[in-house]
Amino acid sequence: MKYLCFDYGSRRIGIAASDPTATVVRPVTTIDCKVTPRFLDEIKKVITEESPEKLIFGLPLGPYGDETEMCAKIRTFADKILAVLDAPLPIDFMDESFSSVTTQSIMLESSSKKRRKDKKTIDRIAACVILESYLREQSGQISLY
Fold first, then answer.
1. 104, pLDDT greater than 70
2. What is d(CA 67, CA 60) in angstroms, rounded to the nearest whole number?
3. In a domain, 123, yes or no
4. In this structure, what CATH number is given to the domain that contains residue 83?
5. In angstroms, rounded to a whole number, what is the distance separating the alpha carbons of residues 76 and 17?
6. How confident is the model over 66-91, as pLDDT tens digits?
């Protein structure tokens, strides 16, 4: 099954995809909502091009697993995406609480200082981290994040 994952932020949305066997994850793109006011059209285009079978959304749960204010915004964002699609897709949510730490660690390993500060790259990598964690959880593996 192929997945598409969204790391939603108030400014940027990082997107990552799995391969059809759900074993490899890759960054797809980052959409800057301030630069792209019709970002839902862009997301629909990415979904059409990638042809996922399921959409995953990162949720920043609180320290006790409780939903934060941002979680409500992400659920609304997921509903908006479903509303613009021609055919409905199943969705799921994944706790993204530790994805920032993992993303920072990955970015520190980058040799380019400029790349480490590129917020668009960070958002794509964060989407990859969320999707990898989701796939591990689905396969019954212990997540290291």
1. no
2. 7
3. yes
4. 3.30.420.140
5. 21
6. 999 999 999 999 999 999 998 999 99
Q: In the β-sheet with 91-95, what is the strand arrangement from edge to edge?
A: 25-32, 12-18, 3-8, 54-59, 91-95
Q: Is 30 exposed, middle or buried (0-12, 13-18, 19+ CB in 10 A)?
A: buried
Residue 85 one-letter amino acid: L
d(CA 82, CA 109): 36
Residue 42 domain-assigned? Answer: yes
| C-alpha to C-alpha distances, 125 to 30, 41, 98, 120, 122, nearest whole angstrom | 10, 22, 13, 9, 5
Q: What total of structural domains would you count in the chain? A: 1
pLDDT at 144: 47
12-68 pLDDT, tens digit each: 999 999 999 999 999 999 999 999 989 999 999 999 999 999 999 999 988 888 999
Residues spanned by the domain of 56:
3-139
**Ramachandran region, residue 72 (left: φ > 0; alpha: ψ -120 to 50; beta: rest):** alpha
